[in-house]
Specification:
Length: 220
């Protein structure tokens, strides 16, 4: 394999690596639900209404893993039919992931209460961020679909990259939460809000940086 071919696979491999923790956590949640694990205050809401979380986990897993290969330029160039076929799977999966995420944000009750905040310190700002991220992800996917129907490939690619960036937020949040796990003294609603928001913001910033570099390269 040439150095350029290796570099082309770095992006999919890196994206799958970022996805792996939430994917494994989702599979563990599915095993809990299917095996009838002990119901606790942390998971009771999932047992009470399992369908949204099951659909969310399955759709996010397909979206994050299969979607990573859409970033391989060699696949897009040499196997355009594969790229299009994968896209027909990814758009519905992404929409299901976004919409079920919005449903869970709106209707799943908080877990253990510690004073006025949930045990994981999800306050109104985290709630707002989740609604914004889920709504924006669904919107970006729809805009990307409309763009490809118009044969507007540059805008299709840009909107799909933004949608994927938001869908991969949970993976990046594993890393942004490292200070949370290392320093319990910082626990609180503000820290939780910053770490959650940073996951989505970093992903979108990287996408916009890539798109800006491409625009500059074309103009030069």
């Amino acid at each position: 394999m040439t150095s350029s071919a290796k570099a082309d696979w770095l992006a999919p491999a890196g994206l799958i690596g970022i996805s792996i923790v939430p994917v494994v956590a989702g599979i563990f949640r599915l095993v809990q639900l299917s095996d009838g694990a002990e119901i606790t205050s942390d998971n009771a809401r999932f047992f009470a209404a399992p369908l949204p979380v099951v659909l969310h986990i399955i759709s996010v897993t397909i979206y994050s893993i299969l979607g990573a290969f859409q970033f391989s330029s060699s696949i897009r160039r040499c196997n355009p039919n594969w790229h299009r076929a994968a896209g027909r799977i990814l758009v519905p999966c992404g929409l299901v992931a976004a919409l079920t995420g919005l449903w869970m944000t709106q209707y799943y009750p908080a877990a253990n209460l510690v004073g006025p905040l949930p045990a994981d310190f999800d306050g109104p700002f985290v709630y707002a961020f989740r609604l914004l991220a889920g709504s924006a992800m669904a919107l970006f996917l729809c805009l990307g679909f409309v763009a490809v129907m118009r044969r507007d490939i540059p805008h299709h690619r840009a909107w799909m990259m933004r949608g994927y960036a938001l869908g991969l937020g949970a993976g990046t949040q594993v890393f942004t939460h490292l200070p949370w796990f290392l320093f319990p003294s910082i626990h609180g609603e503000l820290a939780r809000t910053l770490f959650m928001g940073a996951g989505w913001a970093i992903n979108l910033a990287v996408v916009e940086w890539i798109l800006l570099r491409e625009r500059r390269s074309r103009s030069s």
